[in-house]
Amino acid sequence: MELLVDFLTRFVTQFQTPALAFLVGGMALAAFGSKLEIPDAIYKFAVFMLLMRIGINGGMEIREANLMEMLLPAVFSAVLGCGIVFLGRITLANLPGVKVEDGIATAGLFGAVSASTLAAAMVILEEEGVVYEAWVPALYPFMDIPALVLAIVLANIYLNRKKDGANTRVKIWPIITESLRGSALSALLLGLALGLLTRPDRVFEGFYDPLFRGLLSVLMLIMGMEAYTRLNELRKVAHWYVVYGVAAPLVHGLMAFGLGYIAHLVTGFSPGGVILLAVLAGSSSDISGPPTLRAAIPTANPSSYIGSSTSIGTPVAIAVGIPLYIALGQAVFGF
Amino acid sequence: MELLVDFLTRFVTQFQTPALAFLVGGMALAAFGSKLEIPDAIYKFAVFMLLMRIGINGGMEIREANLMEMLLPAVFSAVLGCGIVFLGRITLANLPGVKVEDGIATAGLFGAVSASTLAAAMVILEEEGVVYEAWVPALYPFMDIPALVLAIVLANIYLNRKKDGANTRVKIWPIITESLRGSALSALLLGLALGLLTRPDRVFEGFYDPLFRGLLSVLMLIMGMEAYTRLNELRKVAHWYVVYGVAAPLVHGLMAFGLGYIAHLVTGFSPGGVILLAVLAGSSSDISGPPTLRAAIPTANPSSYIGSSTSIGTPVAIAVGIPLYIALGQAVFGF
Amino acid sequence: MELLVDFLTRFVTQFQTPALAFLVGGMALAAFGSKLEIPDAIYKFAVFMLLMRIGINGGMEIREANLMEMLLPAVFSAVLGCGIVFLGRITLANLPGVKVEDGIATAGLFGAVSASTLAAAMVILEEEGVVYEAWVPALYPFMDIPALVLAIVLANIYLNRKKDGANTRVKIWPIITESLRGSALSALLLGLALGLLTRPDRVFEGFYDPLFRGLLSVLMLIMGMEAYTRLNELRKVAHWYVVYGVAAPLVHGLMAFGLGYIAHLVTGFSPGGVILLAVLAGSSSDISGPPTLRAAIPTANPSSYIGSSTSIGTPVAIAVGIPLYIALGQAVFGF
Amino acid sequence: MTHKATKIVIITEKLIVEGVTKIIEEAGASGYTMVQAAGKGSRGVRSSGRPAVVDAFANVKVEVITATRDMAEQIADKVAARYFDNYSGITYLEEVEILRPHKF
Amino acid sequence: MTHKATKIVIITEKLIVEGVTKIIEEAGASGYTMVQAAGKGSRGVRSSGRPAVVDAFANVKVEVITATRDMAEQIADKVAARYFDNYSGITYLEEVEILRPHKF
Amino acid sequence: MTHKATKIVIITEKLIVEGVTKIIEEAGASGYTMVQAAGKGSRGVRSSGRPAVVDAFANVKVEVITATRDMAEQIADKVAARYFDNYSGITYLEEVEILRPHKF
Ligand SMILES: Nc1ncnc2c1ncn2[C@@H]1O[C@H](COP(=O)(O)O)[C@@H](O)[C@H]1O
Ligand SMILES: Nc1ncnc2c1ncn2[C@@H]1O[C@H](COP(=O)(O)O)[C@@H](O)[C@H]1O
Ligand SMILES: Nc1ncnc2c1ncn2[C@@H]1O[C@H](COP(=O)(O)O)[C@@H](O)[C@H]1O
Ligand code: NA
Ligand code: NA
Ligand code: NA
């Protein structure tokens, strides 16, 4: 009961935090027909900066971290990435009106990770004074890659079977390489390597870190405009996508919270880490996921997966998910 | 006499303040045929940042302001916006060689507001240590919208009458909506709403505010290059535009100074506020005004209004207007 | 011996400094086939910011500097710019398989200056605590312009003679103007003028200076990607370009170190200044040099000079040159 | 086998692109393609309103493939009648061959 | 004197541009030219995957001048067969005249 | 009613665009249109001098509608003679139909 009250208060206050406020502001602008444009170059650069910031910091911390501590959360991340895709395969992808490969692609997107949702949670946690191991954001690829790869493999298996009943093998390695080459993972891994192997402290503290919060606000604005703009794509696909878009982020987040709690008991994974793991799982990829899936599962209709992720999944993951996991964390860990 | 000396000293020193120095630098570069380019994406983003900075700050202050205090300056802003257009309608638009709709469009542009001129004045006042109510920059739309709307209405009345003597009614509401949807007002209003309704303090202090001054210097450079580049458009229109471009900003600024002084006496409007009101009135729109007018008064020749505003009005408003109002403020209020 | 050990240690540590780390990171990304893109607008703006930062600071310092002190280093800079081109003319340009005009253009590029190499050295010197007269970076044009102009003149003389044996005179003034109009020198000179004539201290300290280090890291990343991407152009030209690309930066740097040392003895030129002069000479132009040469010596094959400079000269100048001159400085001046 | 079709090209100011595409859609065309363009014409003097120094590519070039020549001429006429007194712009037609006529 | 040649135009999603240029090169064309484009067609619904609000120009228009009409049709057929079931796109041919036939 | 006219297309490096438009203007054309382009041709090796990783669209495609075929050929010949030994580029002509001949 108290949990509910706490969540509701937090939920309402949440709309005053910049991350969410800019998201809602973006939606409002788009709904109003505003001609405001954030140039493509700024969008690309903001995404790059965010991922470098997350990567460099992660790398600097891993340098000093006890690698054993990271092991369990990393394994759990991969388990979650795959688990989410399997779950979508046996639920969404089998619903009436949902083409199987569309459902699988959607599950892949929801299994993958959104850098901006993650960044928003990091900023909110910082404001709440909730601490976490700085390597937690570096769990990103451990969840993102397995989810995308598994979705592509499952879709190909399905399509091959449908076509000729044959059992053509799907090559996994090229899918992984392709995914690592994407701009998002490239930037994150570059940042990780720089943080781990070099001394980027000054450029981190003087550039990547201070601009983080501001560029995130710009990205949130873009994502809000985008969410509204894509809404009409959703009208052209089955209603189940809307249901999935609302429920999946929270279900995935709670699954991750559970696994994170186990890691807390076993290896002392921090409460903030548990919350961020839930955010990672609850988020759905917005930058590199869509083009990867579009190229690798060409027959899947992007309106279904991009619509449900961008227009519903991401707003729910940020506006409902983040405050929910924080309230839950407070109830469970009592920080 | 002392006022004059003071103004002249200030005028000369002024050229050393970054805002003006970058403006003049831009002109010099363009005159020299430099190939330096500031990319379009950077320009758009700098404008967005400036307007968000002004809007968010305005919103945060309005939250705490006595709304009654704002009332009179807001009304005066609207009066000025309309007054400037009427003045232009009965002077410039009736001069020989000036097409009536061209004159009205020009008056509309000079009645509207330039975000960069406003920003330059804010930076200079800060350097001079002159304070003002932080909601003053939020008077922007109260002057900008009425001016543009009135100019469009007057031009349409004139054109309709000319065409068929008929009395077709001009619809005002669509003009207002169209103007609010423009990128400049959208960004300003978004900032205002965020400042008013949410808690953007940290992102404001860590991002929008510290980048303000620097991005303004970049904008000033662009405006300088632009002013020079457009000079030759002026050669193709009547000389009266040059006269208007030099005189109008100062006349408008002084009118506003007078009204602001009344508000000072009646409601204690701050000296800095009076100066900024003069700057708002003396400035002419450079970002969203031109396309709005071009779309709404298509028969008006943009060379006339853009030339007179960009190449003459804005440099005069910044280089002569701002130091003039500050010197006047010093003489009148003795700060 | 100790010098060598010191250099080697420094050389290895160097790879941990952000400048070099980002350069190597960019090469690694390109080699891996990453799809990461830094938008063109960001690249152009970063270059602009770097040059403004260097120019403004130089200008502010020249204001207070003893101009006589600058004289000898400025003369040496011009001597070096020309000397490097002459040296290339009588060595590289006469080698078998090297077309004379290609060799001259390459020498011109290596005689000119790279703003990003200079910026990298400035950041590294700051981290090492090595000080220098703040006007040293303003020696840039004194070396850059003579080198480019001389290369263009020598190439034209050669081509004219080859064509008709005639002695058509090459006009020097248009070449200088054209070179000053280029985006790099324009920005640098604008910055110098602003620093010298106006009071840009606050915008410098609040914008141009703090973003310097960060934007440099972004540029280094781009240059790394570029170096790798252009490697295959080198495969199409004579091997001598590879030899020149490796040796020339170091030979030029050491020549400059020697001249700088003379200035140290004669006028007390600082050790840090001597090192930066070596960096200037050792660097090869990457921004405005190539298009200037391409336009002025159209028959020269850009693959030869851009390939040898971007893919070999610049990495060598940064990774080997900078630590070498610092180690040398330590050995010679014992700071 | 290929089929004849007509391509109409409209080069004009970005500012009016919405109106132009509306005319195209109302004429019943199956689609259109747009490219950013810079240019110089008789009205070089009419400035676009966007800062010229940062937005040189302020024209658009719109292309429409139409199944009938009639539709192409109709679009060209409407655009010219509605806009070309006050905005700069040119139009021209070309013959093209399409491979999948059902698309247009 | 000029020589007849064929120009094939392919307007499609940026995402598959690498595959398209590979087909062009394999067909033996001497080169190609690419332009960023925006557009609307029958599949307006199929979104590109890049944020629409920031990357409206997510199509490309690829042009190839081919010496023989045969090569042009071959490219058009291959691109359509390989991609146009799942990606949006159109192709068409035009006759052009070239001045330096050895280039193509 | 439409009138025949000629369109000349020049695809070349951005670096020389000023020289190309000067030739066009001197030939007496009423205007031209320019589009940013990327491309690959026989001289793929000749690099543009701008960082390739950030400025892939370093070509321009210039189009000129000329009233006479003569003027078109003259432009094509001058551009090729002056530039194409040292810079990459191609030109070709197309027949187009214009609706308002007084414009060109
Ligand atoms: N002869 C021409 N050839 C190609 N494009 C032209 C020509 N004349 C005009 N244009 C294009 O059409 C636009 C408007 O032309 P105008 O209405 O003549 O100012 C110009 O900005 C050019 O992009
Ligand atoms: N009738 C048309 N005229 C010109 N371009 C078209 C036309 N139809 C389609 N396109 C272009 O081809 C792309 C893909 O078309 P579609 O496959 O029909 O969605 C669109 O985005 C347009 O850029
Ligand atoms: N066959 C072709 N079809 C279309 N464009 C071409 C062709 N060949 C060359 N180009 C374009 O012309 C430019 C210069 O070609 P080149 O001089 O052959 O290097 C290339 O970058 C392409 O943009
Ligand atoms: Na997820
Ligand atoms: Na005004
Ligand atoms: Na050098």
Total DSSP E strands of chain D = 4
Strand order of the largest sheet of chain D: 2-3-1-4
Largest sheet of chain D: 4 strands, antiparallel
State Rg of chain D.
14 Å
* Helix content percent band of chain D: 10-25%
Integer average pLDDT of chain D:
88
Number of domains of chain A: 1
Count of beta strands of chain A: 0
First and last CA, distance of chain D: 16 Å
Instruction: State the helix count of chain A.
Output: 14
Low-confidence stretches of chain D: none
Biggest interface between protein chains, with counts per chain?
A-B, 28 and 26 residues
CATH class of chain D: Alpha Beta
The helix count of chain D comes to 2
How much of the sequence lies in strands of chain A comes to under 5%
Question: What's the alpha carbon Rg of chain A, rounded to whole Å?
Answer: 19 Å
SSE ordering of chain D: EHEEHE
Strand content of chain D: 35-45%
Structure ligands? adenosine monophosphate, sodium ion
Distance between the termini of chain A: 18 Å
Protein name (chains D, E, F): Nitrogen regulatory protein P-II
Organism (chains D, E, F): Oceaniradius stylonematis
GO molecular function, one term (chains D, E, F): enzyme regulator activity
Organism (chains A, B, C): Oceaniradius stylonematis
Description:
The complex is a heterohexamer, with three copies of chain A (335 residues) and three copies of chain D (104 residues). Chain A contains 14 helices and no strands. Chain A is an all-alpha fold. Chain A has a single domain, classed as Na+/H+ antiporter like fold. The radius of gyration of chain A is 19 Å and the shape is globular. Chain A starts with a helix and ends with a helix. Helix content of chain D is 24%, strand content 37%. Chain D is elongated, with a radius of gyration of 14 Å. The mean pLDDT of chain D is 88. Chain D is of the alpha+beta class. A four-stranded antiparallel sheet of chain D has the order 2-3-1-4, covered by helices on one side. Classes of the chains: A mainly alpha (335), D alpha+beta (104). At the A-B interface, helix 2, helix 3 and helix 10 of A face helix 3, helix 9 and helix 10 of B. Strand 2 of chain D pairs antiparallel with strand 2 of chain F. The site of one sodium ion (NA) has 8 residues of chain B, from helix 5. Chains D, E, F: InterPro entries: N-reg_PII (IPR002187), N-reg_PII-like_a/b (IPR011322), N-reg_PII/ATP_PRibTrfase_C (IPR015867).
